[in-house]
Amino acid sequence: MYFAVIDLASGRTEGRQSLMDIFPGYGTAEIGHILWGPRIARSRVSTEAFFLLTDYVMTDLRYRRWQWRCNALNEPSRRAADRFGFTFEGIFRNHMVVKGKNRDTAWYSITDEEWPKIRARFIAWLDPSNFRADGFQVKSLRQ
Prior knowledge:
This protein has helices at 44-60, 75-83, 115-126; strands at residues 2-7, 12-23, 28-36, 65-71, 87-98, 101-111. By secondary structure, it is of the alpha+beta class. The protein has a domain at 2-65 and 108-130: Aminopeptidase, CATH 3.40.630. Strands 1-2-3-4-6-5 form a 6-stranded mixed sheet, covered by helices on one side.
């Protein structure tokens, strides 16, 4: 299930993210096929888009596990998973062949036990008081 990421300030669609590997019976799903354009990458918009989808899955649907996986060589994706509060679970070595090359896959998760604390961090970070007039954050998500 794909979702458009729209910057409400400009009204422009600036990215996409999807809900995938959905297993309602197990209460698990994954965020994937993420493309946040250059105008919103590493911004309040992409962070809020991530939070809204995650909160829907973990709070509204009450899923047990939310996962993120990426090419183990994709450092920006791995940093994002860490910033968003995912726990690194390990590397699936020789997981797949993509464009004729081996791909090792890094796996991350957030569980239902972890989500309330992580959720509180996002709510505090997204609060308007955490942003200066120029739009820059006062405290980082990690803080």
